[in-house]
């Protein structure tokens, strides 16, 4: 059975029975072929299928299209899609209002004025509806309407901007975002050479004293040509599959073996090879090269970019906001994008290389745009055929003999030519923008929207109008040549302002043909006629490989950049001509209403977003929309100035709307920008934020796996062939063919029967029932695979419960008495009520070393009973030294008023100035315990709690993930050499191997000893340090302290302990 039969069986399997007479209409096709018009019914992420369609009704897709509202759409199709639909809804209501204002106020005025003041020979039905021939004080009515339009736009933009910020706020708090690893990760770019290591990244963050420490860091590794090799390999697999299917099409051996010409240029030269043998040998070579490259990857050099994870999502946003535009050590630090969104080839570009590529890219872009303006001359001539009939004889004869075809060519053909030449421009712009160094696909989309929109406005509005002005001016001069003297022709140039005015207003008729064409293309988009024709052609002529069919059955990616750019351009045309030609915004309103419903269907049932960015495009399109208002006013200034003369200063009355727009833009930036870009947690959200431990993040190198270059673990394609063609492979390849199983890594490791041909190449047999892409595999590919501690089983078992926001389902449930978040963070051994290692240390409710850590208090013999080893020197009090750790971020003030006026010194914690009733400290009656060693009393206004505890301590002493998981330090030895009096070797309890010691690298260490002399009533001294590196293979680690250790021999009164800092 051929590729077309395979596709036909798929279509039949997924089709709804319907009367044959109905098939032929596009809307009926939507109800017939679900695999084409409703792929998301079968392929969707998680438990988010599109709304149910009634199969028994012909147009069963209409009710869900009409009745599904925004809250449900946010959860099912994502915020990017909802943002686009909200933009379309904004445009449709905006132009509905503009059409009411212009058609209801301006058209009656224009028509009445033309009927009274303009000779019937000098007007037509379209010119009567425009401002072209209107003069006098009636022009100020148009100015007034422009004020009303400006006010309407600002009001609608403000309302929708506020709603999108609200949606963004909900998105930041949704389970999908909060459980995503990338949401609490920062990217570090342009890392200097000396900091290009994991510890170097950590040092960069410590140098800027950010409020929250990193939990793990990862420096990028140079992968060389490995990405190119993998792409080369996969392209080779596609080529081999294509030639095999073409040769074995229909289950029969072709008459001639396929050949390929290598080394030819424009079809000339080169050598001819057997295509199947050539690509089989090529595939074998590339597989060997990739394996060799991957085996050497650990020896490659570090790149100039890296990543750092934070303990919680709010922490990452706070740090990113603090470091915005600060460039510590010359780096750029920002929130990390989704790893699927990153364009990895641009991550390691230096600033010099980026500057060179940007310059080259802009030059190429300018060249492309210049050559793309050439069709504008053709369009301008076609749009002005009417005016040429008086000078070109055959045009006059054509117009008289066939008015219909003449009207088609002059009216419909210009926008069709414009659309045809503009089809490839976004593709070229996207390629050039990627060449210029865009870091993510979403940023690439934003850059394409900005540049594509700018090109359309400059070329098809400004340059097109100028060409029309020049065209009409030359036409007038040509008409006067031979009839008037040169001086008379020159003297008639004073009519040029009127010519300019009439030209750009007369071009409104061109845009009235442009919008119906756009409306047709909207419906054409819905019908997907081009896709159907192309698939049919490819199936009949070339045959379709199993891979083609699998990829075709998946929902396609929605090209936001192209649709945003086209929608903005239509909006700019409608606004610019609103006060000049009221029919243009009316035509725009009709198209926007059509687009709103068509693209709602497309996004609900057909298309998906490549990567969810939470509606990041909104700011960009709102800025362009406000620019369109200014452009509308600029053209109105030109119109009033040409009518009254610029010396009269009457045109100044049209300037205030531009100032209003600029003022609103400044206001919007202050009100919306920060809330749009960052997650701004409240005190309550900070207190309840899920905090991940450093041990959990470092276990299994989570950051390196999530943000390592995808080429390091990319799946290589396995050649696939239709099962009914497999028996013919013996006639295609020479030699013995073995049988085995092939593991399809690109499809989740699915195993298929395969045949092994010469060179050890496995070709998998794909049966008819396996042609479609596996929906379960699709959910794994499209779902957030980097949710922390998630698996398919735990997701199915734990994901339930009521929603904790307006739009997103809750991720917190109880399972047999267990809190789900705690289960995922701590594992099944965690018991209810146990205090998980999710607590930040610098909490007002907890002393620096709580009695839960009984290991620190078990050996106190040798110390004075009145002396406590509860450390009174938190890291937040050190303001100097290389080992400084920044204080916990206090968004609403760093200290409570309870501490005001209390003298502090560097040996005292701000939380140890008053005696406390804290349950963490055991008070002994009559004990002369120093007040400075006690925990603080809860102060008034206890709602300001920055601790991230999820419950009271179970008293288990579980310090897992907080710096003392293995237990106390069993032994220590100061360096023998006097040149290093601040270093010491430590043996940690439970650490016996070098691998175990790796966990403690970077952890804080407290060296506590009893001195002879008292300071403020205490003989206890503390010297802080960090674990720097393993020493040998027995688990001993080396530590470096911020000051020299005492030179005398250590006695029983000395303690060295791991400090339970925030991890």
TrEMBL record:
Signal peptide: none
Highest taxon of the lineage: Eukaryota
Xref: InterPro entries: Csc1-like, CSC1/OSCA1-like_7TM, CSC1/OSCA1-like_cyt, CSC1/OSCA1-like_N, Ribosomal_eL33, Ribosomal_eL33_sf, Transl_B-barrel_sf
A Gene Ontology cellular-component term: plasma membrane
Any single GO BP term: translation
Biased composition (Basic and acidic residues): 921-934
Compositional bias of kind Polar residues: 828-842
Domain CSC1/OSCA1-like N-terminal transmembrane: 33-158
GO molecular function, one term: structural constituent of ribosome
PANTHER family, A to Z: DOMAIN PROTEIN, PUTATIVE (AFU_ORTHOLOGUE AFUA_3G11660)-RELATED, PROBABLE MEMBRANE PROTEIN DUF221-RELATED
Protein name stated in the entry: Uncharacterized protein
């Amino acid at each position: 059975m051929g590729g077309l039969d395979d596709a036909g069986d798929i279509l039949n399997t997924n089709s709804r029975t319907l009367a044959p007479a109905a098939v032929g209409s596009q809307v009926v096709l939507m109800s017939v072929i679900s695999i084409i018009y409703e792929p998301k019914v079968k392929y969707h992420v998680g438990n988010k299928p599109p709304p149910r369609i009634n199969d028994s009704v012909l147009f069963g897709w209409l009710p869900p299209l009409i009745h599904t509202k925004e809250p449900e759409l946010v959860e099912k199709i994502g915020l990017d899609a909802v943002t686009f639909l909200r933009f379309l809804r904004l445009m449709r209501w905006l132009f509905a209002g503009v059409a009411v204002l212009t058609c209801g106020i301006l058209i009656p005025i224009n028509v009445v004025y033309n009927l009274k003041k303009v000779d019937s020979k000098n007007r037509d039905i379209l010119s009567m509806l425009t401002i072209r021939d209107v003069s006098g004080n009636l022009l100020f009515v148009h100015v007034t309407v422009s004020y009303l339009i400006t006010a309407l736009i600002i009001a609608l933009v403000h309302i929708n901007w506020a709603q999108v910020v609200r949606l963004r706020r909900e998105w930041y708090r949704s389970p999908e975002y909060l459980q995503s690893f990338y949401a609490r990760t920062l990217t570090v770019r342009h890392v200097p050479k000396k900091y290009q290591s994991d510890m170097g990244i950590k040092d960069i963050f410590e140098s800027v004293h950010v409020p929250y420490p990193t939990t793990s860091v990862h420096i990028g590794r140079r992968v060389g040509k490995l990405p190119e090799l993998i792409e080369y390999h996969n392209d080779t697999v596609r080529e081999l599959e294509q030639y095999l299917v073409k040769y074995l099409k229909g289950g029969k051996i072709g008459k001639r073996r396929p050949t390929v010409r290598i080394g030819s240029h424009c079809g000339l030269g080169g050598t001819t090879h057997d295509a199947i043998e050539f690509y089989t040998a090529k595939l074998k070579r590339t597989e060997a090269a990739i394996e060799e490259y991957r085996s050497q990857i650990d020896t490659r050099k570090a790149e100039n970019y890296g990543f750092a994870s934070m303990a919680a999502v709010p922490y990452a946003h706070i740090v990113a906001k603090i470091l915005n535009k600060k460039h510590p050590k010359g780096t750029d630090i920002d929130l990390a994008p989704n790893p699927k969104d990153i364009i990895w080839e641009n991550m390691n570009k230096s600033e010099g290389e980026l500057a060179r590529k940007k310059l080259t890219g802009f030059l190429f872009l300018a060249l492309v745009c210049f050559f793309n303006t050439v069709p504008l001359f053709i369009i301008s001539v076609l749009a002005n055929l009417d005016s040429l009939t008086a000078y070109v004889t055959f045009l006059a004869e054509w117009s008289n003999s066939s008015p219909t075809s003449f009207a088609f060519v002059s009216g419909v053909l210009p926008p069709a030519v414009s659309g045809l030449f503009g089809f490839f421009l976004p593709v070229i712009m996207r390629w050039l923008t990627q060449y210029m160094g865009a870091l993510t696909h979403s940023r690439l989309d934003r850059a394409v929207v900005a540049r594509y929109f700018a090109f359309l406005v400059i070329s098809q509005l400004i340059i097109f109008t100028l060409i029309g002005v020049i065209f009409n001016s030359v036409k007038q001069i040509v008409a006067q040549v031979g009839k008037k003297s040169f001086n008379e022709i020159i003297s008639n140039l004073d009519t040029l302002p009127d010519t300019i005015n009439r030209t750009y207003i007369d071009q409104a008729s061109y845009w009235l043909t442009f919008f119906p064409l756009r409306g047709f293309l909207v419906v054409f988009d819905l019908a997907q006629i081009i896709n159907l024709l192309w698939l049919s052609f490819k199936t009949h002529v070339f045959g379709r490989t199993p891979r083609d069919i699998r990829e075709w059955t998946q929902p396609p990616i929605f090209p936001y950049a192209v649709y945003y750019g086209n929608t903005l351009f239509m909006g700019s045309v409608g606004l610019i001509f609103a006060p000049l030609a009221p029919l243009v915004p009316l035509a725009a309103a009709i198209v926007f209403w059509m687009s709103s419903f068509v693209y709602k269907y497309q996004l609900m049932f057909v298309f998906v977003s490549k990567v969810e960015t939470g509606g990041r495009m909104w700011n960009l399109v709102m800025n362009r929309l406000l620019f369109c208002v200014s452009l509308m006013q600029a053209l109105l200034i030109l119109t009033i100035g040409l009518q009254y003369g610029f010396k009269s200063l009457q045109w100044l009355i049209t300037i205030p709307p531009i100032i209003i727009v600029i003022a609103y833009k400044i206001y919007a930036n202050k009100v919306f920008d920060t809330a749009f870009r960052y997650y701004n947690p409240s005190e309550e959200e900070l207190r309840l934020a899920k905090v991940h431990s450093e041990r959990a993040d470092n276990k299994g190198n989570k950051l390196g796996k999530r943000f390592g270059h995808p080429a390091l673990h990319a799946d290589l394609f396995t050649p696939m062939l239709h099962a009914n063609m497999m028996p013919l492979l013996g006639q295609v390849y020479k030699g013995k063919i073995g049988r085995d199983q092939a593991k399809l890594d690109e499809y989740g490791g699915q195993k298929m029967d395969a045949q092994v041909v010469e060179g050890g190449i496995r070709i998998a047999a794909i049966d008819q029932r396996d042609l479609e892409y596996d929906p379960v595999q699709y959910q794994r590919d499209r779902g957030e695979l980097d949710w922390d501690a998630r698996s398919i089983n735990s997701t199915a078992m734990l994901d339930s419960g009521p929603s904790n926001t307006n739009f997103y389902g809750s991720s917190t449930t109880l399972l047999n008495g267990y809190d789900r978040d705690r289960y995922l963070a701590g594992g099944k051994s965690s018991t209810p009520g146990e205090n998980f290692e999710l607590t930040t240390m610098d909490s007002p409710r907890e002393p620096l070393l709580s009695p839960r850590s009984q290991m620190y208090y078990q050996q106190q013999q040798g110390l004075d009973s009145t002396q406590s080893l509860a450390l009174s020197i938190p890291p937040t009090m050190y303001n100097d030294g290389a080992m400084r750790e920044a204080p916990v971020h206090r968004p609403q003030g760093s200290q409570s008023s309870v501490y005001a006026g209390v003298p502090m010194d560097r040996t005292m914690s701000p939380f140890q100035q008053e005696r406390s009733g804290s349950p963490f400290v055991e008070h002994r009656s009559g004990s002369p315990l120093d007040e400075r060693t006690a925990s603080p009393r809860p102060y008034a206004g206890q709602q300001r709690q920055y601790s991230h505890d999820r419950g009271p301590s179970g008293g288990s002493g579980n310090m897992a993930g907080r710096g003392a998981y293995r237990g106390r330090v069993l032994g220590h030895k100061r360096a023998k050499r006097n040149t290093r009096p601040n270093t010491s070797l430590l043996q940690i309890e439970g650490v016996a191997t070098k691998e175990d010691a790796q966990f403690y690298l970077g952890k804080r260490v407290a060296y506590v000893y009893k001195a002879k002399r008292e300071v403020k009533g205490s003989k206890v001294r503390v010297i802080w340090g960090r674990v720097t590196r393993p020493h040998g293979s027995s688990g001993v680690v080396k530590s470096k302290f911020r000051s020299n250790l005492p030179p005398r021999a250590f006695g029983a009164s000395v303690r060295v302990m791991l400090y339970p800092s925030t991890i």
